[in-house]
Design a protein that fits this description.
The complex is a heterodimer of chains A (424) and B (122).
Chain A: H1 5-26, H2 29-50, H3 56-77, H4 84-88, H5 91-100, H6 103-117, H7 124-134, H8 140-147, H9 151-167, H10 177-199, H11 206-226, H12 231-244, H13 270-284, H14 291-304, H15 313-326, H16 330-344, H17 346-353, H18 364-376, H19 380-393, H20 397-412
Chain B: H1 11-15, H2 19-38, E1 45-48, E2 55-58, E3 64-67, H3 88-101, E4 106-109, E5 112-116
Antiparallel strand pairs in B: 1-5, 2-3, 2-4
The chains are: A mainly alpha (424), B alpha+beta (122).
């Protein structure tokens, strides 16, 4: 058989569980990873001949563990290499192990593996790189490409992150309920970071970076399958799906950012939207609201509107209000102001963001939004000042180009215009 | 005799298809389905959303709602309904009514992503 794509798929979907379990055995990330690599090599040799094992993850865990134990013994005793057959005789072992691999056990294995990547001392970019390498199994080359850095630089970043994590004291006992909830929320935040890393890409890099969004969705789904009754994990998964559903419409042919109001909604991915909406529906039944659910609900209201003018801005305003209470942040208030401008006009919106000036004095979107409100009110001179400030603070060329478009429009006329604050 | 053909596959694999790959498979399926439709032999075809969107109602007394797909192996699939509901709560209400009429076992409630009504004349 020459087609080995099914093996790649099986190996990558078994990876989080297998590496997680191997980490529990060896309590050392490098050993666990190496053991998994070795098991994969053996799988590539054995599976095409013997067919896939009943439970690929259990097979990989068993083989990985045996090979690593043999390696350890060998280096201790300097004994000759064991026969390949001696460690590959797995048929019985697999069955025995599969029985012991009960769901709750590997659930904590995967959560621990993800949690290790969220070490608070690691800067966000290192957390993400580490998770993509260890949990998702992306190659250093793939990660480097998504982060737009050289392979050598990414290699160094991951090595450094691993060294930090190795010193960290992550307990290997089964976590208690409180501990588990804390881990879950740290991991959810990390998955959201991975997503944003791809989502915040500008038009010229969006395509290269969109695998980050897809990987984040895959991890969110994995987490949801492990923790099926967590409304916030449903909310997170829904949020990512609903945001990513708009991917094809967010940039024009030249790579310029397209505002939500101006997007071609026929390009939105209806399959992702349907799944996102179903997940929110499911989450709401629990009557335990949370920031991801609220943000997902906001994204859902956008997704449900066939035309921009159908958007239920009143409801969006209310949801941002709830989010402000739950997670007070000037950026949330800024987002809410956009909804307020649609419901009660630019005057009210401007009033809402006025107190944020100091805290957001170096935030691009603040000046972009402020400028748009001023423009709607016909205060063009002030709008121009705000837009100039926004251009000076733009993070990407797409952001700057977008503001320049406003300025051009100001020059031409003073027609009112909407604005979107990117959720971050 | 009517036959139901139930579709099983690894959702990770199917979920990892690109839009183009997915469309290519659907196109090939449409050829087969099209021929059956013309002959008036094809009933409804549904594509379900992933199992992460599933909810299960155990028909115990009182019925118990569990997040996630039906995971037991001791019962067998005996039939299915397609119901039009505004939301999951409504679908669960329907399932509860059905469950009251026929207790025991469980219903897995899964949103339908795509459906064609078919051309069967009954």
């Amino acid at each position: 058989m020459t087609d080995t794509a099914w093996i790649d798929t099986a190996l990558s979907s078994a990876r989080p569980q297998a590496v997680g379990a191997l980490l529990r055995y060896f309590r050392n990330l490098d050993t666990a990873e190496e053991a998994f690599q070795n098991a994969c090599l053996r799988a590539l040799k054995s599976w095409p001949q013997n067919g896939p094992p009943r439970d690929p993850a259990a097979w990989l865990i068993m083989v990985g563990r045996n090979v690593a134990i043999d390696d350890i013994r060998r280096s201790r005793k300097q004994e000759p290499l064991p026969e390949d057959a001696a460690i590959s005789d797995l048929d019985d072992a697999e069955e025995a192990l599969a029985e012991r691999l009960d769901g709750s056990h590997y659930r904590d294995d995967i959560l621990r593996l993800l949690f290790i990547c969220c070490h608070p001392e690691l800067p966000a970019t290192q957390q993400i790189a580490l998770a993509l390498r260890i949990v998702s199994g992306l190659t250093v080359k793939q990660i480097a490409r998504a982060f737009l850095v050289t392979e050598a630089a990414m290699e160094q970043r991951i090595t450094r992150a691993k060294a930090r994590v190795a010193d960290a004291d992550v307990p290997f006992e089964t976590p208690g309920a409180v501990e588990r909830a804390e881990r879950l929320s740290a991991v959810a935040a990390m998955i959201y970071l991975i997503f944003n890393e791809g989502y915040s890409a500008s038009g010229d890099t969006a395509e290269i970076r969109s695998p980050l969004c897809e990987e984040a969705i895959r991890l969110a789904r994995l987490l949801l399958r492990l923790f099926q009754s967590e409304p916030e994990i449903m909310g997170l998964t829904a949020l990512l799906l609903l945001q990513h559903a708009r991917a094809a419409a967010r940039f024009d042919a030249e790579g310029a950012f397209v505002l939500l109001d101006d997007q071609d909604r026929s390009l939105w991915n209806q399959k992702m939207i349907a799944e996102g909406l179903a997940l929110i529906d499911k989450a709401m039944r629990h009557r335990r609201s949370g920031p991801y659910q609220i943000q997902a609900a906001i994204a859902a209201l956008h997704a449900r509107a066939a035309r921009p003018e159908d958007t239920d801005w009143t409801q969006i305003d209310l949801l941002y209000g709830a989010l402000e209470i739950m997670q007070p942040s000037p950026v949330v208030t800024l987002n809410r102001a956009v909804a307020v401008s649609k419901v009660r006009g630019a005057e009210a919106a401007l009033e809402l963001i006025e107190p944020l000036g100091q805290r957001l004095s170096s935030y691009f979107h603040f000046f972009g939004v402020r400028g748009a409100f001023l423009m709607q009110l016909g205060r063009n001179d002030e709008a121009r000042v705000a837009f100039d400030r926004a251009i000076a603070l733009a993070n990407t060329s797409a952001e700057a180009a977008h503001i320049r478009m406003h300025l051009d429009r100001l020059m031409r006329d003073s027609q009112p215009n909407g604005a979107e604050v990117r959720k971050k | 005799m009517l036959y139901a053909i139930l579709c099983y596959h690894d959702e990770d694999t199917v979920g990892s298809w690109t839009k183009e790959q997915d469309a290519a498979v659907m196109k090939k399926l449409a050829v087969v389905q099209g021929a059956l439709t013309k002959q008036g032999r094809l009933g409804p075809v549904a594509r379900l959303l992933p199992t992460t969107s599933a909810t299960t109602l155990r028909k115990d007394d009182p019925p118990l709602v569990i997040d996630g797909p039906y995971a037991e192996t001791k019962e067998q699939l005996l039939g299915f309904y397609i119901v039009d509901c505004n939301n999951l709560d409504e679908a669960l209400d329907v399932a509860r009514d059905l469950g009251a009429a026929n207790p025991g076992g469980a219903y897995e409630i899964r949103p339908v992503g795509m459906m064609t009504p078919g051309s069967l004349k009954t």
